[in-house]
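Tutorial, part two.
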Amino acid sequence: MSTTAVGPGLSVRDIRASRPQLLLEVSRRLEQRRCRLVVLAELVLWRRSAAPRWTGAGSGAAADRYGTVVAGLGQLASSIAVAANAVAHAAQRLQSALELVGRADHRASDEGAWVDADGRLFLPVRSSLGDPVGESHRARLDDLLKAEVHACLQQARRAATRTDEDLHRALLAAARGATSLAAAGSTARPAAESTTDSDLEGSDLTVPPQASAGVFASAAWWRSLTDEERHQALRERPEWVGPRDGVPAAARHEANLVLLDRAERTATARAREAQRQASPWNAAERTRAQEQLDGIRAVRDVLARRDGAPRKLLLLDAREPDLKAVVAVGDVDRAEHVVTFVGGLSTMVGADLGRYDDTFVRMRSETRAIAEGEDVAVVTWIGYDAPQVHEITSSIDRNVLNGKLARENAGALADFVTGLEAARDGPAHQTVWAHSYGATLAGFASLRTSSIDDVVVFGAPGLPFTDIAQTALKPGALNVLGAVGDDVFSYGWMVHGTRPSEVDGSLRLSTFALKDPGSGCNHWMRPRAAFVDAGRTSTGHSDYLRAGTDSAHNLVAVAAGRPELRIVQGADERACTTTGPSLGSDPLRWPRLVP
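Running the prediction step on this input gives:
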């Protein structure tokens, strides 16, 4: 059981008892009264203009009296308008609070739990599964449920309490003669646990929660806003929305387009200034400025593609030297299957976003073809500053041989995936495809409570756990791909933890195909090319996504939620990839030079 106490104010029971429709009816009737007063004022003016003309002191007094009556009627009508608008706005905000309570009820029901009238969450008695992996996964689901229900009810109480206070203030001001909403006072204030900047003074926007409050708090904040408030946030505070996990993709995209324009102006000015002051001493600054500008242009190029695949910009962060960007192909708010790809060493927006987008448009199509009529979205997540080749010798903390970057950015990946779920009306099957150093990052993310359902690591140098039971993944969720000739996969575990294929509970999938399955191979008598199906076999560290390979097929099968279509590594493959003297001389061993 968990509670949702947030201090004094309206309770969950009060919200359940509220009737926003009655407030809307009150607002409608107040508007009717206002219209009658306006008509009455017009009638008084007409009667005065139609009356016989006369002069003298009495005429002047009568004219003054008519003016006073008309002005009074106008002021009263304006005050009624303030009250009507305040009541209508309160009804909309209270409806949002009521819907948040309804979401908490619905999510609890989905997991076999329930929320009582006072907002206390009750979990059912869970019988023992007798499986440590299953127990860990179920505990993860319960933790996610508690976090989401708590965030929904907490924000509902805040929104309802704030609405009640604002309505009281507005009605009192209207009764005292206020003739505008501005005169009645602000209709929104920062949330209790939010931080504010000095430049927010006078704003009528509700400040979002701190990032530390979690993605469910952000999702609840967005749901608590009225449509008008959401549009206002997008217009005036896109930086609140664009990078915020838990907000729907459509809203993030709209906000990030504004941030993209800002970033491009800043990057262009920076690049021009660096070129203007060109000298041997600012070569590094010129390079970084140009890289950031190239990254922004790469984002624009991808978003401008007209190949029938809808794209959304889910993150654009130009604050760090290396640009961060996240682009989705497909509708992550509604697709039944969502894939998030994490790249490894040397991944950069400018150099890699375009080619990844090309690849994932194809792989999304392949996934949809076997997803039994369900939709698929694929996300290129370049949401961290990946280690670069030159840093192998120039940096310790950012060195690809150091797991520090992976550990520090695991939370960002876990929050992103969980935020996609928090923003949706219904759950999605979420898969993470993680390559090279990105697989180590995904491994650390798997240790956190998140909405990751399945993981495929390929070319992984190592994982930070020895047993899938140590993670929050479900049984059978960790899939491992390791190609012949991939030295990162073969030896990276020496510095990055556990060899992925040796993690208890992991499943090794095939990357290697024989021309004649079942016939075995003979390294002593003939070169490998004589018995290997090169079209289906991945070689080296950069060949996993190539069309037609077994590795690409396995990635697609997992993403589509079709585990029965996976090609599992068999005894022949193990024998052919681990035995014989031809390993050192066979040209298939060496990776193709794919950046």
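Residues 186-202, 579-595 have pLDDT under 50 and may be disordered. In part three we will examine how such features are distributed along the chain.
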